[in-house]
Amino acid sequence: MPDLMVEDYLDMMDDAIDNAQSVPFSNKKSIVDTDLLREYIDKIRMNMPTEMKQAQKLVADRKSIIEEANRQAESIITSAEAKAKELVVESEITKNAQIRANEIEKQANIKAREIKGVTDDYIIEMLTRAEETLAACHEAVRRTKGTLKPSENGQEQT
Question: Which domain holds residue 36?
Fold first, then answer.
């Protein structure tokens, strides 16, 4: 099979359960291909570390973006301070330069906060998706496990 995601395997497990043959004279009991379901569970287990790595990469990317935003803000602030020092020729120019430097610094800080806010929102969204996927995987495995309870004589159903 091509590279499938965890949700694809969960869908296939649902289909296998939905298409399972009913046990005669029983209420809601079915015969499922346990080998097929185990294969899907194994595939899910193999894919979960990949999705966890993607979530970790998002966190690392967030840190990188914040660091870059801070570097840019520092650069803007440094540049503003340098410009302010260059403009110290007479009092009016100095006053205007100081006002402008403060504005630039304020704008740089606002921009840095905006970038951080957008980055945080993006990371939260991606982590929420990863969390929801993992919760769905857990729920599907729990449901599947529930359908595969051992029979009363201690042997598994097939």
Answer: 6-21+32-143
- Across-strand partners of 31? 21
Looking at the domain assignment, is residue 151 inside a domain?
A: no
Helices (H) and strands (E) in the chain, counts: 3, 2
Query: Please, are residues 94 and 87 in contact by the beta-carbon 8 Å criterion?
Result: yes
| Interstrand relation of 30-31 and 21-22 (parallel, antiparallel or unpaired) | antiparallel
- Count of domains forming the chain: 1
CB 30 within 8 A of CB 23: yes
Which tens digits make up the pLDDT trace of 22-34? 888 777 788 888 8
**Within-domain flag for 14:** yes
